[in-house]
Amino acid sequence: MSKFDELLEQIHRHLDCTYQNWLFGAGISYESNIPLMYPMTEKIESELEGGDFDAFCKIKEFLPNSSHVEHYLSHIGDLLALLDRSHASEITMNNVKYEYSSLYTLYKQIIRIIGELVRFGYKHSVDEKGDIESPIVEIGPHQEFVKKLFNRRSNLENITSINFFTTNYDTLLEDALILEKKEVIDGFTGGAMGFWNPNVFSEKDNSYSYKVYKLHGSIDWYKDDEKGLLRSRFGTKYLSDNSNLLIYPQATKYVETQKDPFALLFSKFRERLNVSRDNILVACGYSFGDNHINNEVEMAMSLPNNKTNLIIFLKETWDEDLQKSYLPSDIYNWLDESSFRDRVFVLTDKGIYNGNSELNIPSSGDQQFDWWTFKGMTNLLD
């Protein structure tokens, strides 16, 4: 048996582990017509054009070319936080004057557009945007994943603990679980309307209930002046501010993740990884661009007696200048880290990495694999 086949066999055994954690990023919703960060940023920029958004142009010029909408929001949040602390109406940085009112208007406008793009869908390739009357978001890929994940464990579900962590704003994962008759615990108490009650996460795991931790918030989370954090139906008129979506930490990630709900959500992520029993973290659709999440994973994997196995589905990035593909730097660091590199499995479009940065391919020769996609990873579960 080749090394490639041995690794694939090990991965399948790990995927049958009793204690499972799944980490999802924007990539899993791409086939559902929810745009990735850079296409979303382009669409937001085009929708902002023509308006009085000078502050946006100034911020875009100030940030690196590689920035996307989350970086813009984080920077705007930082400026607003500085103005809040100083009780001033404007601030000057790098010879550019920012007014609180224009920054706040810009922030709310960006949040509104994100909410529309995620709620109703957007196809970047043909510039097609869904709306309330004709949404184009599809749930099929998420439903197929849920079906195959639980079909694989049909005889073991009553002794299985599965937790889902996602950076996505959409509700497709929760919706797919509900459609497959799985109870979802998301930190709220209630029905279609719910109030934030983190105690539900601390209740003892039970069969057929699954916890979903939305690390960057959600398009159905609202901050109400009187009621606090709510999960609300779209279009309700009885909240103090229907535009106050909580879909991203409003200042720097580090600062905001020290507060609830984000502090609680990240503490649960940390708790689920810091275990001395056999345990897996499977990452799909996540590009490893969030240093906070990456640091949590690395710290957990480095702990003595930690037995978490890390399974990553990821496409390698092609460098046109060097004429070769590469992985994110954190992945290379983990594959070279002697204390846990044997517990890191990276499945890319080229093959499988484990224990070092050497690529393992089938004995039949070079192949292209699609398991880095949500659909391809789902098919591997079958």
Which structural traits does this protein have?
SIR2-like domain-containing protein, 37% helix, single chain, Rossmann fold, 19 strands, 382 residues, nine-stranded mixed sheet
CATH-defined topology of the largest domain: Rossmann fold
Number of domains: 2
Multimeric state: single chain
Q: Can you identify the CATH superfamily of the largest domain? A: TPP-binding domain
Structure, described:
This protein is an alpha/beta fold. It has two domains: 3-34 and 138-381, Rossmann fold, CATH 3.40.50; 37-129, no CATH class. The chain has helices at residues 3-14, 37-48, 54-62, 69-86, 100-120, 140-152, 172-179, 199-202, 253-256, 262-273, 291-302, 329-336, 374-381; strands at 19-24, 90-93, 96-99, 122-123, 128-129, 161-166, 183-185, 188-190, 194-196, 209-214, 221-224, 228-231, 279-284, 308-313, 317-319, 324-326, 344-347, 352-354, 359-360. Helix 4 (69-86) runs antiparallel to helix 5, helix 6 (140-152) crosses helix 7 (172-179) and helix 6 runs parallel beside helix 13 (374-381). The protein starts with a helix and ends with a helix.
Outline the secondary-structure elements.
Layout (H helix, E strand, L loop, with lengths): L2 H12 L4 E6 L12 H12 L5 H9 L6 H18 L3 E4 L2 E4 H21 L1 E2 L4 E2 L10 H13 L8 E6 L5 H8 L3 E3 L2 E3 L3 E3 L2 H4 L6 E6 L6 E4 L3 E4 L21 H4 L5 H12 L5 E6 L6 H12 L5 E6 L3 E3 L4 E3 L2 H8 L7 E4 L4 E3 L4 E2 L13 H8 L1
Parallel strand pairs: 1-6, 1-13, 6-10, 7-10, 13-14, 14-17
Antiparallel strand pairs: 2-3, 4-5, 8-9, 9-12, 11-12, 15-16, 17-18, 18-19
Helix pairs in contact: 2-5, 4-5, 6-7, 6-13, 10-11
